[in-house]
């Protein structure tokens, strides 16, 4: 169970993040309602997520399949769940079966996982699933995602060969060195322009998922429609940092 003090702090932090997101959108003349704050709750207890839910928030994200399918059934069905990050192909059906109210997957990084998700949606008989293609905008070998030069090919595959998926846009993680994120974000917006030109659709119809706790305001100013905010709302993660 999360301590009451932690819950109160998280609810206050959520309100601050939402206000900052609205202000960032308004600074560049964007509609704040077009920006979605995904509260990333990985490693956090159900009681703390419920506190944020009770504060009025409905959009949450998780990163690990097993943790996700353990927690989701314990929470209200009207939550809009997002899976964020790399998804192993062989866990696609497990994820969809365990989280019927999964709204979007941020992190389709290859045709194989797209095909598995498409088949899983079909076999479970659920409504089409929104997906974002993950782009490796930083060139870091440790990051999942397709190279910018391969984005159009994967987007075309999802759009044409995965009838149970709704190709909804692109996502990137960027780099921990925040001085370089404008370049990463710009790369993603350029990729969106290329994909929309190839598919013959308006850029307004496609989403960008970029920006996290340290850079979400800048990401919104550069066009993000989904910011994934975790530690700023919930506090530090409850796992040791990986050695560098």
What does this structure look like?
With 244 residues, the chain is α/β, with parallel strands linked by helices. Helix 1 crosses helix 2 and helix 6 packs across helix 7. Helix content is 41%, strand content 17%. The C terminus is likely disordered. The protein contains 9 helices and 8 strands. The longest helix has 24 residues. An 8-stranded parallel beta sheet has the order 7-6-5-4-3-2-1-8.
Output the keywords.
244 residues; 8-stranded parallel β-sheet; disordered C terminus; 9 helices; alpha/beta; 41% helix; globular; 17% strand
Structural class: alpha/beta
Instruction: Return the average pLDDT rounded to an integer.
Output: 91
What percentage of amino acids are in beta strands? 15-25%
The shape is globular
SS elements, strand count: 8
Oligomeric nature of the chains: single chain
Q: Summarize the helix and strand pattern as letters.
A: HEHEHEHEHEHEHEHEH
> Could you estimate the helical fraction of the residues in percent?
40-55%
Biggest sheet features: 8 strands, parallel
Sequence of strands across the biggest β-sheet: 7-6-5-4-3-2-1-8
The whole-angstrom Rg is 17 Å
Q: Helical element count?
A: 9
In terms of per-residue confidence, which ranges show pLDDT below 50 for 5 or more consecutive residues? 240-244
Spatial gap, N to C terminus: 32 Å
């Amino acid at each position: 169970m999360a301590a009451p003090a932690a819950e109160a702090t998280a609810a206050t932090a959520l309100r601050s993040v939402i206000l900052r997101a609205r202000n960032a959108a308004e600074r560049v003349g964007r509609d704040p309602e077009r920006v979605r704050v995904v509260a990333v709750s990985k490693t956090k207890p159900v009681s703390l997520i419920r506190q944020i839910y009770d504060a009025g928030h409905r959009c949450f994200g998780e990163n690990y399949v097993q943790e996700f399918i353990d927690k989701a059934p314990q929470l209200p069905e009207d939550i809009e769940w997002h899976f964020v990050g790399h998804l192993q192909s062989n866990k696609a059906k497990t994820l969809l079966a365990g989280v019927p109210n999964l709204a979007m997957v941020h992190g389709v990084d290859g045709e194989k996982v797209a095909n598995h998700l498409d088949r899983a949606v079909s076999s479970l008989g659920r409504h089409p699933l929104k997906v974002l293609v993950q782009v490796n905008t930083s060139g870091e070998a440790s990051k999942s995602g397709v190279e910018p030069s391969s984005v159009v090919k994967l987007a075309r595959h999802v759009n044409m060969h995965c009838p149970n998926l709704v190709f909804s846009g692109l996502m990137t993680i960027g780099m921990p060195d925040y001085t370089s994120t404008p370049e990463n974000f710009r790369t993603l917006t350029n990729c969106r322009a290329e994909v929309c030109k190839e598919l013959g659709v308006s850029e307004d119809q496609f989403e960008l998922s970029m920006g996290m706790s340290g850079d979400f305001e800048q990401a919104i100013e550069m066009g993000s429609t989904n910011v994934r905010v975790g530690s700023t709302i919930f506090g530090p993660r409850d796992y040791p940092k990986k050695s560098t």
